[in-house]
Structures are given as structure tokens and as C-alpha cells.
Write a structure and sequence with these properties.
With 408 residues, the chain is an alpha/beta fold. The chain contains 17 helices and eight strands. The strands form two sheets. A five-stranded parallel β-sheet has the order 5-6-7-4-8. Strands 1-2-3 form a three-stranded mixed β-sheet. The longest helix has 23 residues.
Amino acid sequence: MLPVLQDSWSRLQPALRERAGAAAYDAWLAGLRPVLLERGTVYLEADNRLAADRVRSLFAPLLQDLLSQDIGTRLAVEVQVREAKAFDALEVSPQQPVVDDSNRTAWLVLKSLGGGRPLPANLFCFHGPSGVGKTFLLRWWREQVEGPRRPGAGGGSRVMWFDLPALLLAFQSVHHEGRVDGLRDELCQARPLVLDEFHRIAGKPQLQKFVLAVLRAREAAAQPTLLATRWHPHEIRDLEPTLASSCLAGFVAAIDRPGPLARLRYLRALEGAPSRNGRAAQVESLAQQAKGGYPELRAAWAQQRGAHLPPKYLELIDPGRVFTRLRDRVAERFGVPATELPGKRQGRAVSRARKALAWLCLQNGLSGSEVGRFLGGRTRAAVSYMAISLQQELATSPELRQQLEDLQ
């Protein structure tokens, strides 16, 4: 549809100039550029905020009429501001999430939490399909809450973070040893708590009973509890009704797949500078064609680029940068040289740090083969074994959990 929109926009320029007036056209409309046409909406870009505001307030009906007549169907017009920052400097990461109508409510709530503003609840449930950035948003929020990472720093502001598989392992371990109260006390500390992949609690009645007790104990706490789940609590299979009711008693917000402007911004950030000139048309066309969540967008972009990827990756798509960042943090936290982690040395301290590094890399989205390659050519099976071994240690050691929770 982008070529159709571009052809229509070119044809409309004389009529637009005549109906708006030459002076107004030159001042406000000549710099507009069409970037997307989707679901009956034309998305235009203006050079700056002033021009975008003026076009919205004075010329939106004119633009809608002309575009609708030319294309043959009723269209709405949205005007956005061209990013002021160079596209190769744009960042798409947990530190700079993409925000649009699909996730703005969740982002605003988390921003309010990060800023310490009072909210009417202390339980928050965010639900949406896989790949829409739920975990990214929560990691961004954690960065706002905790501030700059200081290895070894403690404090009540540190966020406790469990994904459900890890929580299940911990619960099974303490249940077997009769130490369930200790794990419940750990989760009820006066610190924020995140339970990621909450939908995986489906069909686990004992764990559901335990989590319900934790949520009830945290109801009066000043620190928030945040749940991220693929489905709305009512849609989680075999969820105990009382637990579902507790989830719904808090604030519930949906996070949907990225809309057209979010897709465009994300792909421009991946592309870098060429998205503003040499490959602008290809990037805009891909933003219109590609569907799904951010992983699907990234895959479609990488496939389109083929072997000609830009030399400067963003961390989001460069596993080497993710590995290096985590390697340095683990080395400092465990007190071992970073150069020994990919090596063959098997001392207790180095071995434990290496397992922690492998687990953290997998938690941050690297594949087993990527982690193995960076860890001195180890196999994917070896990486999987290291991660499983560390998870077993985490299940029985609150100290190790606290040691690792702020390294991600």
C-alpha cells in the first residue's frame, strides 16, 4: 500500500496547494511526508512538533477529504513528528521502550510507579501475547526504580524477580524440605516483586495456593506486586477462582501487538541511518507489511537485510553486546577475572560464575548456541546443563537468588 499512498500524495500536491493557499502550503504542508497507510488511516510525518500541531488543528479535514477522494475510500489522517534524534542514535531496549497505543496505559502506570506517585492499588497485572514487550517494559521499570547498577549494593528498592518456572523450582524444593514459610517470608519482604510468565501457574494447585497466600500478605504492603502473563487472569487455564479474583482486584492492563508507528520506529532504530535516506522506502514498506510482535519484526528485518547488516548493532539484536555486558557484571559480582569465564578452568568460584553467566544470558534472550559460542565453543547441551544446575542451586539458596536478581 505504500507505493499507492506515495503516488496519491504526489498527485494531490497541486490541489492541496490550491485549496490551502500557497503561503500556508509552503509553511506547513510542503514538508509533510507519507509513511504508512493501514486500516483506513494515513500516517504523515512533519519536520517538527509545531508543524505537526498546526497541520492537525488546521488542515486535517482538508487532507482527509483529498486523500479519501483520490484513493476511493474514507480515510483518517494521523500526523506524527519526525524523530529529532538521528536514527542511528535511536535506541530500542529495556532502557528505551517503544511506546504507542498498544502499550501506553501499561507504560504510564509503570512510569508513575517508577516516579513514586501514589496509585490506587499495589497489585498490577499486565497481559498480552508473546513478543509484545511485557518483560521489556518491566525491566525498564526496574531500571527506573533501582537506578544505576552498583554491584553488591543492597537496599529496599531492589526488585525481587521470579519467572514462574524458577518460582516453581524454588517452591518444590522448599516444600520437599518443609521450608515453605521461609520462601513466603522472602517474597513478602518490603521490596517490589515481579512474577513474570504468570500464566505458567496454570494447573499447579499447590503453587497457586502458595502464591495466593503471598499476594494476600502483600496487600497491605507499600511495595507493589507486578504480574506479567500471556493471558487475562480469567483466561488462564485451571486458575483457582480466589487467585483469579485477587489478580483482578488490582490494576489490569492489556499490552497488544505494536501498532504501525511503533513498528516504524522500531525498524528505523534497527536499520540505523539508512532508514532516513538510502533505505527509507524499504523500511517504511516493511513496517506496513510485517505483523506480529517485536521478535517477528526483527526476524523480518534481518531476512530483508540478508548479509548486508549495518556495522553497528543495537544491543537488542547483537548477542555479543548482551554477553559482554553480563560477563563483566558476573565477573565483578563473583570476584573472578572476566577472561576466565569463557576458558576451561573448573575452580569452584569460576564454575559457579560461568553457570550464572550462562543462565543470565538465556534469561536475556540469547540462544543456547550463541551462549556456547561466546563461552569458548561449548555445546548447546553444555549450556543447558549449566543453566539447569544453577536453577537447582537457586531453588535452595535465597542468598544466591539475591546475588543474581539485580544482574539482569
